[in-house]
Write a structure and sequence with these properties.
Blueprint lengths: L2 H4 L3 H14 L2 H8 L2 E3 L6 H20 L8 E3 L11 E3 H11 L4 H28 L8 H23 L4 H16 L4 H9 L8 H31 L16 E3 H26 L5 H4 L18 H9 L5 E2 L8 E2 L1 H29 L15 H20 L2 H8 L3 H40 L1 E8 L5 E6 L3 H7 L24 H14 L17 E4 L8 E2 L3
Antiparallel strand pairs: 1-4, 2-3, 5-6, 7-8, 8-9, 9-10
Helix pairs in contact: 4-6, 4-11, 5-6, 6-7, 6-11, 7-10, 7-14, 8-9, 13-14, 13-15, 15-17
Protein name: Cytochrome bc1 complex cytochrome b subunit
InterPro entries: Cyt_b/b6_N, Cytb/b6-like_sf, Di-haem_cyt_TM
Pfam family, one: Cytochrom_B_N_2
């Protein structure tokens, strides 16, 4: 190949040299464009949330051109005939105009709504992936906290956006929001008047939610997402255990061109899915609900899925309240509202935020971790996560207890009572079942490492016994299994004088020691047994789990 063909075109080298001589970015770009990213399907879950957020920004910008955030009442005179002449707010009328009179408006509205659902769902599954693999451990605790804040803000962003069309369904959710806010001790009345501009429903709630929805919360989200990405870039991505992978390297493909090509294709795929959903699957048909009036509520009202667990908590909570000083006039604490609104969210979000630090306190593990865990290899963490998911799932399911009762012809009271029991029993059962499953999966890994995998080859021994020959597992599968490391545990042994280590004395230290002993350690160690490098290794058909025999030919 000639030098002319090897040289880059002048159209590229000219501007590149111009910018490099003034900005000095060549070394920076060269270093970062070759940054290696690991390859695993679960790492794409966070990208779903990122790309959905980009689509939200683009579609939301389109919608702001026509939406009128005003609660001033007008008579509808648009193209949707069933509502002609009906008094409604300008917010609802402009939402109808976007849906029926703006070219591509309904598509953009539905894309915005679907992208919002996918944004929250993507963050949820991404958070679960990080939690179950232990990717939140040192040095990524700060990024984990940022992720929890992002999820919390996404719920607030969804709530404010859901209320903007001012239709009957979103108005029912807004009424619940007002009830929760005003029930808060000391600050409830002030907070409610600030949001609604006076007595409910007021005249300002839509305009104030609009400011929160398009300015304040998105600005904070954008800043936190940027910080999240920068920290991930600086600290490098975690990788799954496997051949040649450890805490000191990253096995994968470079950012340019491999990762950029995959990321670009995945963004287009996400855009195509959201566009397809918006085109063929109707969501939030506000014209069927009608304008919101405080005196009306539609049957079967359900919030979007991410608020379903709060709805379920409200529905199963007993009608408890505390009258201060024995009289209602002195002040009432409506526990039937305060507890469902604050406790489930507090348990989930606070638990997520504190877990990395609580785990480090229990295990005493201050090492850096760049290789992720397989969920089965930390059974207590996995069991805690599944228990929390069950807690969330029961509340989410009971948010539709009226629909469940109507569809299955079950008493509404019975579903409510069952929910009150399940909210305590189901997470405990989920914990026990998950823990036993993790140990079972560890035993399965141990059996594969010790005895190999079934080959499908059946042999008959001279004395008539039939056996199946086992073969070694594939090299990459074995390396993946051997990436297992014992869960760290605090030293609790006493010294020669019988004195426990510092920090393990006193009631709190003893509790910490017991928790560390239960949480940490190796539950089912990998054991090579007699090795599996020979074809003669096998396990007899129908033999027990620990029955191992060898034959010679």
């Amino acid at each position: 190949m000639s030098d002319e063909l090897k040289a880059a075109p002048k159209a590229i080298t000219g501007p590149s040299n111009f910018l490099d001589e003034r900005l000095g970015g060549a070394n920076f770009l060269k270093r970062n464009l070759r940054k290696v990213f690991p390859d695993h399907w679960s790492f794409l879950l966070g990208e779903i949330a990122l790309y959905s957020f980009i689509i939200l920004l683009l579609t939301g910008t389109f919608l702001t051109f026509w939406f009128k955030p005003s609660m001033a009442e007008i008579a509808y005179d648009g193209s949707y005939a069933p509502l002609k002449g009906v008094m409604m707010s300008q917010a609802y009328a402009s939402s109808l105009e976007i849906s029926f009179d703006v070219r591509g408006g309904l598509l953009m509205r539905q894309m915005h709504h679907w992208a919002a659902l996918l944004f929250v769902a993507g963050m949820m599954v991404h958070a679960l992936r990080v939690f179950f693999t232990g990717a939140y451990r040192k040095p990524r605790e700060i990024n984990w906290i940022i992720g929890v804040l992002l999820l919390t803000l996404a719920l607030a962003e969804g709530l404010t956006g859901y209320s903007l069309p001012d239709d009957l369904l979103s108005g029912a959710g807004l009424r619940i929001t007002e009830g929760v806010a005003i029930s808060l001790p000391l600050v409830g009345t002030y907070l409610t008047f600030f949001l609604f501009g006076g007595e409910y429903p007021g005249e300002d709630v839509i305009s104030r939610f609009y400011s929160l929805h398009i300015l304040l919360i998105p600005g904070i989200l954008l800043a936190l997402i940027s910080a999240h990405m920068v920290l991930m870039w600086v600290q490098k991505h975690t990788q799954m255990p496997g051949k040649g992978r450890d805490n000191h390297n990253v096995v994968g493909a470079p950012f340019y061109p491999a990762f950029m090509a995959k990321a670009g294709a995945y963004f287009l795929f996400t855009l195509a899915v959201i566009t397809g959903l918006a085109t063929f699957t109707q969501i939030n048909p506000i014209w069927l609900f009608g304008p919101y009036t405080p005196a009306d509520v539609s049957a079967g009202s359900q919030p979007d899925f991410y608020m379903g667990f709060l709805e379920g908590a409200l529905r199963i909570m007993p009608a408890w309240e505390i009258n201060l000083f024995g009289t209602a006039h002195a002040g009432t604490l409506p526990l039937s509202v305060i507890i469902p609104a604050l406790v489930p969210m507090g348990i989930i979000m606070t638990g997520l935020a504190l877990y990395p630090f609580l785990e480090r306190w229990v295990t005493g593990d201050n090492r850096e971790h760049h290789v992720a865990d397989r969920p089965r290899n930390n059974p207590h963490r996995t069991s805690i996560g599944i228990s929390a998911m069950t807690f969330y799932g029961v509340l989410w399911l009971l948010g539709a207890n009226d629909e469940i009762s109507a569809f299955f012809h079950v008493s509404l009271n019975h579903t409510t009572y069952a929910g009150r029991v399940l909210i305590f029993v189901a997470p405990a059962l989920a914990y026990l079942i998950t823990y036993r499953m993790c140990l079972g999966l560890q035993r399965s890994d141990q059996a594969i490492i010790s005895h190999g995998v079934e080959s499908g080859v059946i042999k008959r021994l001279p004395h008539g016994e039939f056996i199946e020959v086992h073969t070694p597992p594939a090299e990459d599968i074995e390396a993946h299994m051997r990436g297992k490391r014992p869960v760290p545990m605090l030293p609790v042994a006493e010294d020669s004088a019988g004195i426990p280590p510092k920090g393990m004395r006193g009631p709190l230290g003893k509790l910490r020691g017991r928790m560390s002993k239960a949480y940490g350690g190796e539950k089912i160690p990998l054991d090579d047994g007699h090795g599996h490098g020979h074809e003669d290794e096998h396990a007899a058909i129908g033999a027990g789990e620990n029955d191992e025999r060898s034959i010679s030919h």
